[in-house]
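@channel anyone free to eyeball this complex?
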Amino acid sequence: MALSRIDTTNMIEDVPQSKLDNNINFRNIIINGDMSIAQRGTSTASITGAGYHTIDRINTNLSSLGTWTQSQSTDVPSSQGFAKSLKMDCTTADASPSSADFLQLKQRIEGQNLQYLKKGTSSATSLTLSFWVKSNKTGTYTCELNDTDNSRQISKTYTISSASTWEKKTITFAGDTTGTLDNDNAGSLELNFWLGAGSNWTSGTLNTSWGTSVSANRVSSSNVNLADSTSNEWYITGIQLEAGTTASDFEFLPVDVNLQRCQRYYQQYDYTGTYHVIAHGTVIGGNQIRIIFPFINTMRSTPSLSNNGVGNFRLNAYGSGADQTCTGMSLIFGTVQNAELNFTKTTSNLSTNTNGRISTEHTNDASLIFNAEL
Amino acid sequence: MIDTVTKNYEPIYNTFCSYQVTYVNSEIVKSVPLDEANTDYQAIQEWISEGNTVIDNPPE
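replying in thread with the prediction:
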């Protein structure tokens, strides 16, 4: 049977353009904005420095401003569809920050994911940020977009009005006609939530239009110091940054999709059980086994390797009876898709070029960690 | 904060293959690839530029 020709000329003319704009898949530039993925763990205490501590893709940038417990919380805004939030809990206060001190939460974004914003051209697109936030500490807070390719930034403030109440905030940033973003896998743009800052960051005039980055103009002089009391806590979820001047509903992704997006930057493989086999490889020396470890998803760059303690791994050559606790682990060669790892033990009693295996050490839990974060 | 950086050598061909990094007040040890896009590698280069020295014990 012959197919009829379909005239598509006017098929979508009655659909408002605004509706189309608000339904673009993957419109949220922020990865894991619903705080649902936490490969590293759900709580880390005694945080005094920068790093990724719990929630995937959320970097804590902290310099000498209190001590914190960060956790993945189930305290969420009611009836909004969120299941998790990020919580910052001050455990050691610093009510008088030194000039250089600060606390930010941030997400760094690859330049190649931002080319459609046309930054640095006359057609540069505005960006709208929306998020849910809650804190006992009411007052003024600063959000910032920081273009690290061109040392340019823009800051806006929001106000937490009601203590310990979830509030939705929406902020629109104008497009920037100066400074194109590099089209590569390096970080180009940062979204920063400032939770406290010393005078080096607050003493100027807040830069509410895109301009050259000047430290003193990055944070509002009215910004709260969330570190001023151990009673302080701050929650956030539903972070969405999207092209345009209006905030659409939060784009919920299936958990598998969300996890895969996070695994471009960080992959943690956890093994439990007694002598659970992790990988097979080849004995390349009396005390060394070499394995090839394929990643579940392609990573942003060749990742760094770490673990939760080499003593949680065990080396064994089949039939040799010479198994022993691991004492060393190193990356020999890596790509964005796999890594060649070398495991060593103390006693040199394995037969070279025989089959070897890496397992958990007795009942210890073992974790292999690959990090390609920005 | 980086505490020490040591060159890793591939044990068969004795070629420099990665860095082993320890951190101040941390039990974390990272094995860092020779990839300029890796942020740990970038941190090592910055640490070196600040005048710190990489431990280099090539196999004999």
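from a first look: The longest strand of chain B covers residues 2-9.
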